[in-house]
Every structure is written in structure tokens, then in C-alpha cells.
Amino acid sequence: MSSFATLQRLARKAEPAERCGLCGLGLAHGHRHLIDPANRKLVCSCDPCSLLFYESGATKYKRVPRDARLLRDVVISDGQWESLMIPIGLAFFVESSAEKRVLALYPSPAGSMESLLSLSAWTDIVSDNPTLSKMQSDVEALLVNRLEHDAEYYLAPIDKCYELVGLIRGNWHGFSGGTEVWVKIRKFFKELKDGAYA
């Protein structure tokens, strides 16, 4: 009897790893996300539930867009970057509708860290790069990669930014991170660039 029970358990359909945070439906890999701007919390969503929300507006949740855009015309000077007081060459900037300001966040082994961003520093960057004035609050971020010789700038869905945070947090080992995490970071940006539109 125990052998039969074991076979039954193995034959059962595997439970989905993630479920829609609104209706409970099982989700496939690559599903949509909503964001709760007040708590900066992502919520997994099935396609029908995600259609109930927009990328902007005053609702509890906002729908996170899917596509990233490579910003070839954006440049942040070394002086501007230093004024942001970000200790590494990775960061993302998102306008928080709840806090009514732009947040400067960077990934670390402990998760997402916030750097104090002065209004004048961000205003100077937007003045030099008018494209950034069209960034949608809460759901899109300016994602900056200055790890390589040539800096890259993306208008990225906020869930991709948090995916990068999770990648670093989950794979960092020792003081320098270890070889594996840097390989994964390079792969993340290669896939982001390959899938981005210009």
C-alpha cells in the first residue's frame, strides 16, 4: 500500500511555483507583475488580473510593463555619478508616487540599498537627458550599468531591477562576490540588451 501511495504522489501534477497574488491561479515562468507603490512590493499576476490595472493612475496596484529600452542618448558624467554617492557601478532610479521623490537604489549582498539623492542632482541629470522626464513613476526605472568600460543606460521595468537585486543577493559569496555572481550579472545585462528596443 505504501508503494502505491508513493507512486500516486509522484504521478500527481506538480504544483506551480508561483500563484497570482489576486486570484490564486497558478503562474508560468515569465508572468506579469503588479506593484504596490505605497509598500514598494511586487505582486505576481496572471494576465487577466493584470488587465484590471494600468501602468499609471491612483490605484492600489500598477501594472509593470514588460519591455526594456536601451537609452543610447543618455549620459551621466563621472562628476554627476560621484554626486549620487553610490558605492558601486550599478543603480536604478525610480520616481516614487507615494514618497513624491526619485529614489536612488543599488543592489547589494543584503538586498536593495538606498542612496540619498538630492533633488538638484537628479534635476541636473534630467536636464541633460530630457528622455528621463517621460519615465513612468513606480513601474519604470533608469537602470545604470557602469561596471564595464562603456556605461549602459536602460529604461527598465521595475521588476527587472528587483530581479537584479535578487540575483546579487542570492549568489554573492565572500568579500568580492565570487566569480559566479559576476558571470550571472554579465548574463543578465546581455539578455536585457538583447531583448531591449532602442
Features:
alpha+beta, six-stranded antiparallel β-sheet, 31% helix, 198 residues, 6 helices, three-stranded antiparallel β-sheet
Notes on the protein architecture:
It is a single chain. With 198 residues, the protein is of the alpha+beta class. The chain has 2 domains: 14-63, no CATH class; 69-195, no CATH class. Helices cover 31% and strands 25% of the residues. It contains 6 helices and 11 strands. The chain has helices at residues 2-11, 47-50, 78-83, 119-128, 158-171, 179-195; strands spanning 18-19, 26-27, 32-36, 41-45, 62-63, 69-70, 90-96, 101-108, 111-115, 140-145, 152-157. The strands form 3 sheets. It has a 6-stranded antiparallel beta sheet with strand order 6-11-10-7-8-9, with helices on one face. Strands 4-3-5 form a 3-stranded antiparallel beta sheet. A hairpin with a 6-residue loop joins β10 and β11 (152-157). α5 packs antiparallel against α6 (179-195). It is globular. The model has no long low-confidence stretch (mean pLDDT 91).
